[in-house]
Amino acid sequence: MNREYLWQVLDGVDERHIAAAMRFEPTDPSALRERRTDMKRNDTHARRPVKRLALAALAAALVLALGVTAYAAGWLDSIFGQAARKINTNDPSEERIEAAAEAVAQSPQEPESQRLPAFDGSKLTLKESYYDGQGLLLGVDLDAAEPDPVVGYEPDETLLERIVQPNQTYQIYYSTQEDLDRMRQDIEEHYQGTADYDDLMAQADRQEALLAAGDPDDLDVELDAGCITREQYDDIMALRSARAAAAGLHYESAIRLDAFLKRELAGEAYEKFWDILESDGAVCVVMEDLYVGDHMLAEDGVDLAAMQTGVEGGTFVEAQSDAEGKGYLTAALPEQLRGLDELHIQLKVKGGPVYYYMTLDGRAYALHEQGEEQMVSFTIPNSAK
Fold first, then answer.
1. Is the pLDDT of residue 233 over 60?
2. CA angle, corner 78, sides to 72 and 79, nearest 5?
3. Rounded to an integer, what distance in angstroms lies between the CA atom of residue 105 and that of residue 117?
4. Distance (Å, rounded) from C-alpha 20 to C-alpha 177?
């Protein structure tokens, strides 16, 4: 399986919600990529404690493996270094990330900032870049000037109908029966007779049981149906704020949105959110969202996927291209972009409102509206020359 595709599937999404995504050879990985990017972008902090501990353990093991010299050189603190720490560096295919981290540690790069006229007061800064003639890695920081959130926004009937669609459920994608049928067909076509076959079919069966149990967002339904363990149930319930616990929130999307808004809203705004929710039974919060899009343009208009990993102080971006005829993405650049003295690329910065909508005894939703887009140009020298 392609490493970036696997990372998207596993990072921050519970297994019981990803049957539609678990195709080992996706025919259209872009749809999943866009969905996962949205989820990461709007709740990057919603990670299970066990994942944080696992990453910390991985970081410690990596420091021991690399030795004191590499750590003292500071490359683990760079955007590239942090990305290497998050990704399995024992995989030979990740050597470019380590080389990039070492390169910026040895020769720190001068940050290059570009103002964003379409988004007043915002700028995009290229902190690190690495083009070795075969692949392209970027470390960027988006300094977004965003207006204060609007708590208690009242969407009209047409907008509300768009917000509360099942596919807008906050942070969680639920497989449909159509997804499951397609998954089983893919398993039959590609994995019959392999060691993975039984495990994949069992996953499809668990997904089907979850759908049959009722609303898959209701944790009480999931627990009663045996779709989650008591430990899983307790872990998610522990995310609730004091007001969420007092109100008896038991829908996973609502619990996660409440936790997100508690972090993102000022104290008075968060209390106002709950006052409206308790008095009206539902509330809408609008925030402006500014982000780097998941595509970039290069020489001659070549469109590349921009696979992203958030780290402290910025975002790691790896250019990816389609593996011709194989249905997945690869970190190797197309032939026409290899071996050049420099690369001219354009990143897409996008922005617009996000409507967060929660009901007191039901699901929570997030609708992203793209209002503006701006292309930002950078020239990347060949690091190998």
1. yes
2. 155
3. 32
4. 9
Cα–Cα distance measured from residue 60 to residue 87, given in angstroms and rounded to the nearest whole number: 13
Say how far apart CA 96 and CA 297 lie, in whole Å: 21
Q: Which of 304, 295, 308 is nearest to 330 (CA)?
A: 304
Q: Is 3:88 a contact under the CB 8 Å cutoff?
A: yes
Task: Answer for the pair 149, 269: CB distance below 8 angstroms, yes or no.
Answer: yes
At residue 2, the 3 state secondary structure works out as coil
Place of tokens 């929130």: 249
CA distances from 11 to 34, 173, 306 (A): 14, 13, 17
The three-state secondary structure class of 63 is helix
- Which of 183, 205, 195, 232 is CA-nearest to residue 27? 183
Q: Identity (one letter) of the amino acid at 115?
A: R
**pTM for this one?**
0.68
Cβ contacts of 90 within 8 Å, gap of 6 or more: none
What angle in degrees, to the nearest 10, is found between the helix axes of 49-66 and 79-86?
Answer: 110
End-to-end alpha carbon distance in the chain? 32
Given a contact cutoff of 8 angstroms between Cβ atoms, the answer to whether 127 and 111 are in contact is: yes
Q: How far is CA 255 from CA 39, 46, 279, in A?
A: 15, 11, 18
pLDDT confidence band for 49 (50 / 70 / 90): very low
pLDDT band (50, 70, 90) for residue 224: confident
Tell whether the torsion through CA atoms of 256, 142, 320 and 109 is positive or negative.
Answer: negative
**Range name among 29-38, 160-169, 320-329, 366-375 with the lowest pLDDT average:** 29-38
Local structure of 332: helix, strand or coil: coil
CA distance 102 to 75: 6
pLDDT for 376 equals: 94
Tokens of 174: 């639920």
Residue 17 CB contacts under 8 Å (≥ 6 apart), including other chains: 172, 173, 174, 175, 216
Name the residue with tokens 């998941």.
Answer: 294
Average pLDDT over residues 312-339: 85
Full DSSP string of 170-211: TT--PPPHHHHHHHHHHHHHHHTTSTTHHHHHHHHHHHHHHH
